[in-house]
Design a protein that fits this description.
By secondary structure, the protein is mostly helical. The protein has six helices and two strands, in the order E-H-E-H-H-H-H-H. It has one domain: Transferase(Phosphotransferase) domain 1 (Transferase(Phosphotransferase), domain 1), CATH 1.10.510.
């Protein structure tokens, strides 16, 4: 934690890495990536980005499109993932603002409660 991050797999990379200039690594980046992976595994659409992002002529134009896309990511997930509990989890994991994403501890508690409910333990 704390190392400088300046690249990643674009489809799974946290927006602060994509638009930032060498941001410090933080667990919220991994939480974001996990949300994108779950989205990819459960969604109907395997294409994450609007085609226009690949056609950007400048980094600033690309960054503006990334910010706009991620500010509306909840709408993308809602239209792409049918299973409501999974959809709601993904939305909490891929929040644009890192401080609004679930923490690792919150994610673990949420998953444990889900498992307990499914096993009839609650």
């Amino acid at each position: 934690m704390g190392d400088t991050v300046d690249r990643g797999t674009i489809d799974f990379c946290a927006p602060e890495v994509l638009v930032g200039n060498g941001v410090k690594a933080h667990p919220s980046m991994d939480i974001f990536s996990l949300g994108r992976i779950i989205h990819w595994l459960t969604g109907k659409n395997l294409t994450f980005w609007p085609d226009e992002i690949n056609e950007c002529k400048s980094d600033n134009e690309r960054n503006d499109m990334i910010v706009e896309f991620y500010e509306n990511i909840g709408d993308v997930v809602k239209s792409d993932v049918d299973h409501v509990p999974t959809r709601n989890l993904i939305i909490k994991l891929v929040k644009f603002n890192p401080s609004e994403r679930l923490s690792i501890d919150e994610l673990i508690v949420r998953l444990l409660l889900t498992l307990r409910c499914q096993d009839g333990l609650l």
